[in-house]
């Protein structure tokens, strides 16, 4: 879609045209899912975040300035929805957190690592997910934006509306926590 | 330069500006640490599960009903006043005709009293129904402010501005009608709406304090409970 057509679609969507908004959903749903999946770590939660993001975007579309980039604006909405969802999920898991930490600790590589590459890869994935779940929503989001999305520290600080130093330290803390799980695992492979 | 810190190595790995690069060329120890960090981070899976070809249609199917329900309709002040005026005319006319019809069997004084009672009840019902509708709109604005992903709440401020004028009228009407609990909720609501309207643009901390005040006063909860009570009261009388 060229810029003029995109602008026309946005203008119609802002005026309440459902079909125009559907064009925006068609154009952004897949990318939103990829971002949400990396932030949430599972498909079900990612799907929920995508839906809630479009609903929020629809509600706030009247305030969206046509000069701004819809993709950038919507990216921020997805990130914020994911942070809300992570907070809610963390609150639900708060009681079980101690158990989760123990589970990761117990899952540390033993003297008998699997010889199968595929199994090892699945194991890494499982442990990465478990350790990502132990990060705060801000650490997890900052890390995902930096590691998977390739966003700069400056962009992360703008997206999360925090100081650049806070964004940087959120990434540092996330990497530190992940390394405690990943490095021993690598040492045994 | 001293040895690189772990944080320097992380910055270097992600291509952020740092002083590690030149040091890494000459320090075997730091180069080994960097290699270990790189290998750990590179082992993190980056793939995303594929979505079906009809994914976009699925998303649309799931959100479309909610978009219709959540759409906030706020008529312009001019439209609201026209509707209010029409309702008043209808009430006066019904009172007049009720009085005319009743003159055959009752004295004029009794007829006027009966009409006045009918008018009062009708006015009260109309007021409470309008307040219930007003609370629904206010609920949506407050919910949006509480959940706004951005610091920019210009849209919500515009809605709140429109709601304040109506809120004042209904609050005064509620006081006149001795509906003190309704008047109290409307009073709290008005303060929150004023907070929202007068918030400077792009003041993140200020938005948090507004949210905290709404939260501390349990305003959303009160608005919802009051609306439900008003609607249930209407069902009971109709």
Radius of gyration of chain B: 31 Å
Average pLDDT number of chain B:
78
Rg for CA atoms of chain A: 19 Å
Mean pLDDT of chain A: 82
Q: Number of helix segments of chain B? A: 10
The largest pleated sheet of chain B is described as: none
Uncertain residue ranges of chain A? 100-114
Query: What's the order of the H and E elements of chain B?
Result: HHHHHHHHHH
Strand content of chain A: under 5%
- The N- to C-terminal Cα distance of chain B equals 83 Å
Number of strands of chain B: 0
List keywords for this structure.
heterodimer, A: 189 residues, mainly alpha, 77% helix, B: 238 residues, 78% helix
Q: Strands, helices and their partners?
A:
The complex is a heterodimer of chains A (189) and B (238).
Chain A: H1 3-14, H2 18-40, H3 43-60, H4 70-93, H5 97-106, H6 117-132, H7 137-147, H8 153-160, H9 164-187
Helix pairs in contact in A: 1-2, 2-3, 2-4, 3-4, 6-9, 7-8, 7-9, 8-9
Chain B: H1 6-13, H2 20-26, H3 28-42, H4 55-70, H5 77-102, H6 108-147, H7 154-176, H8 180-197, H9 204-216, H10 219-237
Helix pairs in contact in B: 1-3, 2-3, 5-6, 6-7, 6-8, 6-10, 7-8, 8-10
Characterise this structure.
The complex is a heterodimer of chains A (189) and B (238). Chain A is 77% helix and 0% strand. Chain A has 189 residues and is mostly helical. Chain B is mainly α and 238 residues long. Chain B contains 10 helices and no strands. In chain B, helix 5 runs antiparallel to helix 6, helix 7 packs antiparallel against helix 8 (180-197) and helix 8 (180-197) crosses helix 10 (219-237). The termini of chain B are far apart. The interface between A and B is large, with 51 and 42 residues.
